[in-house]
Amino acid sequence: MPVRLDAQDPRFAEGFEGLLHAKRETSEDVQALVAGVIDEVRKRGDAALIDYTARWDRQTLTPATLRISQEEVDAAVGKCSDELLRALDTAAERIESFHRLQVPETTDYRDAQGVRLGARWTAVGAAGLYVPGGTASYPSSVLMNALPAKVAGVERIVMVVPTPDGAINPLVLAAAKRCGITEIYRIGGAQAVAALAYGTATIAPVDKIVGPGNAFVAAAKRLVYGTVGIDSIAGPSEILVVADNRNDPAWIAMDLLSQAEHDTSAQSILITDDAAFGDAVAKAVDTHLETLPRAAIAGESWREHGAIVVVRDLMADSPALIDRLAPEHLELAVEDPDALAAKVRNAGAIFLGRHTPEAIGDYVAGPNHVLPTARSARFSSGLNVLDFMKRTTFVACDADSVKAIGPAAVTLARSEGLDAHALSVALRLPGGGQG
Amino acid sequence: MPVRLDAQDPRFAEGFEGLLHAKRETSEDVQALVAGVIDEVRKRGDAALIDYTARWDRQTLTPATLRISQEEVDAAVGKCSDELLRALDTAAERIESFHRLQVPETTDYRDAQGVRLGARWTAVGAAGLYVPGGTASYPSSVLMNALPAKVAGVERIVMVVPTPDGAINPLVLAAAKRCGITEIYRIGGAQAVAALAYGTATIAPVDKIVGPGNAFVAAAKRLVYGTVGIDSIAGPSEILVVADNRNDPAWIAMDLLSQAEHDTSAQSILITDDAAFGDAVAKAVDTHLETLPRAAIAGESWREHGAIVVVRDLMADSPALIDRLAPEHLELAVEDPDALAAKVRNAGAIFLGRHTPEAIGDYVAGPNHVLPTARSARFSSGLNVLDFMKRTTFVACDADSVKAIGPAAVTLARSEGLDAHALSVALRLPGGGQG
């Protein structure tokens, strides 16, 4: 049964602390194995990719067939229904429009001392997108990871996706095509991450790797971090729903289950000001579970990690709890969601009002669905265009402006004992290094 | 002697590859030791901090004296010369002005389908700033790390600085005061990082830790990453100077040495189109080394890791080399630095023209001096205000707008086999879950 907590209970603090720090994921220790795979790919390149793909995906490849051809992509698109392609297109258009507003501007100005200053943003040269194969192969993830890179202006976007026994979700290839990705390799696991990071004869290396994956992929991303940039390593999904008793319990119950069905280690929490409403939601969860296709997963997640927290006053009491949980997804099904949102510091994404189920954000709302998990919304943000760009600052002095600001630099550099620093400025001042 | 490479040489590619991948740092394996220290601080809190500080900094502290008092700070400021305080103030004002332009704006709009969408930025709740003690204790680093946090609006900025044998650089405390930091603890090493990440009875935990440190501090930051956010782990400093023969070789030589004097593993590279000018710079370096106080360090760095690369045409040939090196600092001492900068994708910061020595950016130009090293400018940026903020997206649908965009979400969710996702949307559509 999910945890029940009442903020009036003297042992509430302890119970809530438990929610915050419960380990939901069993971390497999795959680091040594993964390090070995990466070494092999660095040493043997394509040959290693081909060997691992034969062993783990039961696919016989050659350097020439590592890449999925445009004909295969087009054939896959042909297998998708028009309804599905239209829905994909709606999602892609909305995601692209939302992300286009994130493109940052260059600053370039001259200050009162005559120093020219500024910062410009450039896209990373090449980005690699990992797409899981099999049942966790989600076309929506392709859109959410690739479109920010496209909007950022990344010139080369490479996708890797394993095709165990030759199987691939056609809509994944359709999503890639919709994003303009033409360079797709049928490889997966740590070996694919290694190929993206270090390159092989067939696959040129990239600068940044993003996308979800299993424990092997996550470990590989950690190990290649530094050689390339990576997105954050996502933990299990979470939703926190804040709801008063003027909601339909069946709606709120389904929202909780929409996270729970992802994974048995997902977490769904309800905060309400009405214990009876909490009971009604719990009952509706049980009713939904009777018919839900993924009831086994969703039920286990809800029983093991779910929680219903009852507070006295949602507006007064919930913001502090929300900020400590720093949820990936925050749904505010209350009378004045804006007022409550204004009191919240930490959340990956907020869904405002009774008609905004979190799942709308997973597909078509526009904002990214790759969001900070495990309380990291305290210090990090969802995937966005800036993740595929970097900022270069610039300074230009002339003989006059270096004279205006240089002496302070000389003073500070000398005080830090860095005389070459001081002299490199002083040489450009009147009197040169003698100043 | 520094490496000499000529782009016309048939073996140039190989030599340049060597520059790119040379290991300059010996990584001490301190992870196990550091993990033990972190565990102790988590278990024993203040008592562990006090024990480690007695052992490593030879300081006897109590929970009450862990914190540096305002009186001590004021006394330290009193020891700094007026000239030094004025220089600090010039630097702080310029850094603050530059960073103020980075504060991002909230977006909030309604799209054609009536969906309200947007993203807002909030500061992290608390930031911790690590400041090294002893000879590597740089007041300029305090400004560069603290001011972006202050500009971001971080409510609580905590500084930790070890005071081995009671010693502290008074200008470091003056810099902290200038940044408005009042919460300062006289602790350092992995134990200080652990206290910031997990908290003790005296020190409340923070959300993000930034600042330079030795191998122990770097390992501790890596280990607490995830529990808190961290800045990047900086490698040894680098400069790439692109200079034609119309520069004074003595100026360029000093610029190269200003990086080299940081550390024996720092790297200074000159790209020029005139081999004779390269020779003149090499000679000027040797001349400077005869009198430079840190000649031992700078000389070793230059001999072991320095390089002079001669190309045929700076404008045509250097951009590709620059992008591969992705230098932390790029100085363009050429006739038209803007034209050359426009052809460059990867650099942490660019210094334009003959009168802009890199060191001006270390202190007073305004942009941050915490910059991506080890080729990570390919995918990451210097420290900035955004590092102390995070972005929360939001969506609000009403009954009409969820009807407009919901069906596409239902279609995609069903195709991904996520029925609770589909139903949580469908329940809000006309016809409810039957649609």
TrEMBL record, chains A, B:
What would be one Pfam family of this protein?
A: Histidinol_dh
What positions constitute the catalytic site?
328-329
| Listed EC numbers | 1.1.1.23
> Molecular function terms in GO for this entry?
histidinol dehydrogenase activity
Which reaction is this enzyme known to catalyze? L-histidinol + 2 NAD(+) + H2O = L-histidine + 2 NADH + 3 H(+)
Instruction: Give the enzyme class.
Output: oxidoreductase
Which InterPro entries does the record associate with it? Ald_DH/histidinol_DH, Histidinol_DH_CS, Histidinol_DH_monofunct, Hstdl_DH
Cofactor(s) annotated in UniProt: Zn(2+)
Q: Which UniProt keywords apply?
A: Amino-acid biosynthesis, Histidine biosynthesis, Metal-binding, NAD, Oxidoreductase, Zinc
SUPFAM superfamilies, sorted: ALDH-like
Q: In which pathway does it act?
A: Amino-acid biosynthesis; L-histidine biosynthesis; L-histidine from 5-phospho-alpha-D-ribose 1-diphosphate: step 9/9
Q: How is the cofactor bound?
A: Binds 1 zinc ion per subunit.
What does the protein in this record do? Answer: Catalyzes the sequential NAD-dependent oxidations of L-histidinol to L-histidinaldehyde and then to L-histidine.
> Which residues hold substrate?
237, 259, 262, 329, 362, 416, 421
Protein family membership: Belongs to the histidinol dehydrogenase family.
Q: Which residues bind Zn(2+)?
A: 259, 262, 362, 421
Binding-site list for NAD(+): 130, 191, 214
Superkingdom as given in the UniProt entry: Bacteria
- Write the protein's name: Histidinol dehydrogenase
Keyword NAD carried by entry = yes
